[in-house]
């Protein structure tokens, strides 16, 4: 397995990985980037076009885990500032509302092909995301994973990643947010 950045060249692999549903219900990993009304209007083809436009740009978007020419996994990692929804999220709210978030990057989403699940692909993508964000100038990387200690989580929840995976990668638990979610951070710069 190798990990590559999403780009115009690697877009066809992501498109095949996400399939006609755009990973989940026409999302195309645009949920955190758009206000709710825009996201809902864009479900499906408009979100696919927006994602492809990002792939063609030089903006950081995310990484693909590849086996041969096929993507088997995806992680979204970019500066927190591009994820507009995080500003209104109780789960993603910074511990200090006056904190300068310059240099904070976020890992918002994982998508692992059903045939590659439970094989460590997510953990490898997370390690690659840490290296990628650090190389691009991140000072802190944060995420909003699901705590699976209380029982099994649905695949619909697991796109955030699991708390144990982030803790194993050296992230610190800032605090639990609600019953099953957490804010984690890793200083890198």
UniProtKB/TrEMBL annotation:
SUPFAM superfamilies in the cross-refs: Acyl-CoA N-acyltransferases (Nat) (SSF55729)
Keyword tRNA processing: no
The protein's name: Acetyltransferase (GNAT) family protein
Alphabetized UniProt keyword annotations: Transferase
InterPro entries: Acyl_CoA_acyltransferase, GNAT_dom
Gene3D superfamilies recorded: 3.40.630.30
Pfam families per the UniProt record, alphabetical: Acetyltransf_1
Molecular function via GO: acyltransferase activity, transferring groups other than amino-acyl groups
Record domain N-acetyltransferase: where: 1-189
Keyword Transferase: yes
PROSITE patterns xref list: GNAT
């Amino acid at each position: 397995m190798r990990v590559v950045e999403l780009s115009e060249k690697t877009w066809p692999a992501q498109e095949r990985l996400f399939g006609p549903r755009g990973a989940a219900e026409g999302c195309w990993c645009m949920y955190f980037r758009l206000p709710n009304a825009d996201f809902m209007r864009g479900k499906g083809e408009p979100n696919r076009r927006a994602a492809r436009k990002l792939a063609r740009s030089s903006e950081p978007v995310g990484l693909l885990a590849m086996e041969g020419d096929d993507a088997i996994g995806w992680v979204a990692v970019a500066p927190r500032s591009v994820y507009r929804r995080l500003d209104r999220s109780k789960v993603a709210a910074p511990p200090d509302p006056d904190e300068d978030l310059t240099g904070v990057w976020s890992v918002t989403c994982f998508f692992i092909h059903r045939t590659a699940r439970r094989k460590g692909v997510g953990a490898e993508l997370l390690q690659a995301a840490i290296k990628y964000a650090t190389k691009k100038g991140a000072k802190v990387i944060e995420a909003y994973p699901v705590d699976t200690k209380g029982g099994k989580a649905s695949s619909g929840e697991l796109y955030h990643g699991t708390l144990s995976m982030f803790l194993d990668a050296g992230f610190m638990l800032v605090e639990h947010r609600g019953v099953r979610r957490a804010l984690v951070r890793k200083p890198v710069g």
